[in-house]
Write a structure and sequence with these properties.
Elements: H1 2-26, E1 28-33, E2 36-41, E3 46-50, H2 60-89
Antiparallel strand pairs: 1-2, 2-3
Helix pairs in contact: 1-2
């Protein structure tokens, strides 16, 4: 009987994680850093990048550094949103290791 209950809970959990993944993909975050605009979803999948024309006049190293900083900060924001969303979606679920 316990095995059946555990299997049922596993199926339910898989369904909830699938739903959570869809919601995280659909949650789009518009992020701006030093006039660089990035769209990223809550699964940290980058969707678009828009560079200001002024930035393109800078030297290669400076452009690379600023773009890298922008992506890192956008990823941090995405991960915070993911954690908040996951917390609300998994409220009440007993997930091993969490």
């Amino acid at each position: 009987m316990e095995l059946f209950k555990a299997a049922k809970e596993a199926i339910s959990m898989r369904s909830k994680f699938s739903e959570m993944e869809k919601k995280l993909r659909a949650k789009v975050i518009d992020f701006e850093y030093k006039e660089i605009k990035i769209k990223v979803n809550a699964k940290t999948e980058f969707l678009s990048l828009e560079l200001p024309q002024d930035l393109l006049k800078e030297n290669k190293e400076k452009i690379e550094k600023i773009i890298l900083e922008a992506f890192q900060k956008a990823a941090e924001k995405s991960q915070k949103v993911m954690a908040e969303e996951a917390k609300s979606l998994t409220a009440g679920m007993k997930i091993p290791g969490m």
